[in-house]
Amino acid sequence: MRKFNCPACGAEGALKSAASLYAVCEYCKMMLVQKGAAFEQLGKMSALLDDPSVLQIGTEGVFERVPFSLIGRLRLEWSGGFWNEWCALNYDGSYGWLAEAQGSYMFTRAVLAEALPARERLRPQVTVLLKGREFTVMDLKEAVCAYSEGELPFPAPKGRKSLSVDLHSEEAGFATLDYGPEGTSLYLGKTVEFEALKLKHLKQYEGW
Amino acid sequence: MSAPQPQKLMRVIECKGCGGQVQIRAQGFSLSVVCSACGSVLDHTQEDAKILQRAAQALQHTRILLPLGTRGTFHGDKWEVIGYIDKTDGTRVYHWDEYLLFNPYKGFRWLVQANGHWSFVTPVKGELPKIKSAGVWAYKNYYRRFLTGEARVNRVAGEFYWQIEVGKVTQVADYILPPEMLSMEKDDDEITWSLGAYVEPSEVRRAFPQALPFPAREGVAPHQPYAADQSWPKIKAWTQIFVALIVLMQVAACFTSRRQEVLSERIRIEQGPDGKWTPLAFPPFEIRGAPQVIEIVASAPVTNSYLGLDLELVNEATQQSRSFEADIEYYWGTDSDGAWSEGGQTKKVQLAEVGSGTYRLIGAPSTSMNAGVKSYDLDLRVRTGYVPYSNFWLSLLFVLIVPGWVMLRKTAFEARRMEGAG
User: Fold this and answer.
1) Is B158 left (phi over 0), alpha (psi -120 to 50) or beta?
2) Hey, which of A50, A52, A117, B119 has its CA 20 to 30 A from B232?
3) Which residues in chain B are closer than 8 Å to A172, comparing Cβ atoms?
4) Which chain B residues are closer than 8 Å to A54 by Cβ?
5) 8 Å CB contact between B351 and B296
């Protein structure tokens, strides 16, 4: 836990993960990126209306027997809709990502990999080898970060653009290739059933 | 962390088409909504609810079996009906209903009603089925192709998680593995798959008691399971048990029965000049044990002739006798079809329920069709411990009646299912 004071409003904040480099002030919604010991201000994040996510910061769950809690998220929008990438702080101190898209859930972890496929090669139905496993490209989405909150391991200001490629393999295997401004990242994991995540502290809906 | 306020999902907006009020039930989740007054389709995610399709349809006479806003519990989860689509096939003759179900935590499902048959449909996520020539592979199972065709959005009500369009036509294909059906829907932009499970109308009624009366079921649905399919494993198991038991009993009878020859005699029989044959008389023999089947084997070298034998089994103690015939006939020759033969030189006769005691066989040859032959060497043997097979076959047949009947009925059911294929 690293405590800090928001350089914009002075409110006290805390980073739960050692890997976090970016945070949104809970009070004044200032986007902050860590530069050495100080925080740089990137402007204010506007509020998100009609957020359909069932998850929220503080939601707890379990993936492959490792408990996690959600500490931040990005909402990504593309021409056909939107989805959320929730940053999960695992019980062992590592972090993972819980993607949430229209009732589908995918849990992944960032994986270091050399020689990732060039983005020009990727089309739906193309198969690629990732970490020795065969994956099939499902879709490619030009995504824009529309909203972020909590803390994240990279800066995700409003308007951050990236190409997000989803891939599937056998036995619920799932991968995302993210071609972002900081470079290309590979996330490997699985599609998971809502029930299997054993989620607690979900958002409440009036009447449900 | 302070507990945040529960999020509101209900909202009322104003229709840009007619000014009427439009109810939203899944604010944030749904992307288009239909005005119940004028039938316009609106994009309510925008601040000013722009019109996607103005007064696209007449809704007055639409019969929505599961009214919008009703909630039901299905497979343990609570669902709210938020959308309705009346679809038709390419000919616009055949209609079916699709009800969109919503739960903020579980996402979306469908209840589909066609010809009075219901399906609970889940969108397919993750790995997509692989299309083969006559079906698809998915979930380590093969679903065979049932139908390919067009689907047209005819009328809509409520709200949807995409921008619904009245009049939109998509290519559809259904693949079946009763009670499941995998459905593919394809337009210019994308292919979507969904997995339907056949549900009994009574199950839908239990989940949604407020629903309007359902239409009666017609015909057999593409993925309707055959009712006896559930009891089939039981029928199969019992049939196997009975067949095994019958076979076992027969084998046991063969092993335990002591086959024994109690009489083996060769005598010469002759026809006198008066045409009468010498009467038959054999030495007495013993039969021991419980009443049993005995076998009498008579052999004579008849050839293209007939030897009638009228025999009697006489119990020496009681003088009770049982008459039987053991006629031997054997014919052979060649004709336009080649060589043929009929009958044989040996005749076997079984007598049931022969109790223990001393017996004697008597009788006489009755007739011979071959006047030229005046004498025969007649072999006669009596064996005990004979295990009859007639009861064995009869009981086997009896045991196979039920599974046979079920299979016949299933074949007829499958034929009715395929009436709707295309």
Assistant:
1) left
2) B119
3) 126-127
4) 104-105
5) yes
Cα dihedral A65/A66/A70/A72 (nearest 10): -130
> What backbone torsions phi and psi does residue B411 show, to the nearest 5 degrees?
-60, -40
Q: Rounded to whole angstroms, how far apart are CA atoms B342 and B98?
A: 71
pLDDT band at A147 (very low <50, low <70, confident <90, very high): very high
Cβ pair B7:A102 closer than 8 A: no
Residue A103 has pLDDT above 90, yes or no: no
Q: Cβ contact (<8 Å) for B127 and A104?
A: no
**Who's near A2: CB < 8 A, 6+ residues apart?**
A14, A15, A18
User: Taking an 8 Å Cβ-Cβ cutoff, which residues of chain A contact chain B?
Assistant: 50-52, 54, 56-58, 81, 102-104, 136, 138, 168-170, 172, 174, 191, 194, 202-208
Q: Which two tokens stand for residue A36?
A: 């050495």
Q: Choose among B222, B358, B378, B230: nearest CA to B300.
A: B378
The pLDDT value recorded for residue B278 is: 83
When pLDDT is averaged across residues A63-72 and rounded to a whole number, the result is 95
Q: What is the pLDDT of residue B3?
A: 55
List chain B residues with CB under 8 Å of A168.
126-128
Of all helices (H) and strands (E), which one includes residue B379? strand B375-386
The answer to whether the Cβ–Cβ distance between B6 and A169 falls below 8 Å is no
Residue A196, C-beta contacts closer than 8 angstroms, at least 6 positions apart: none
Chain A interface disruption, residue of B127, B163, B193, most A CBs within 10 A: B127
Instruction: Please determine, for the modelled complex, whether the ipTM score is greater than 0.90.
Output: no
Exposed / middle / buried, residue B192 (Cβ in 10 Å: 0-12, 13-18, 19+) = middle
Per DSSP, the three-state class of B61 is coil
| Residue B279 near residue B269, CB atoms below 8 Å | no
pLDDT score at B171: 93
Q: Which residue of B has its CA nearest to A102?
A: B107
Which pLDDT value is given to residue B1?
47
Q: Which residues of chain B have pLDDT under 50?
A: 1
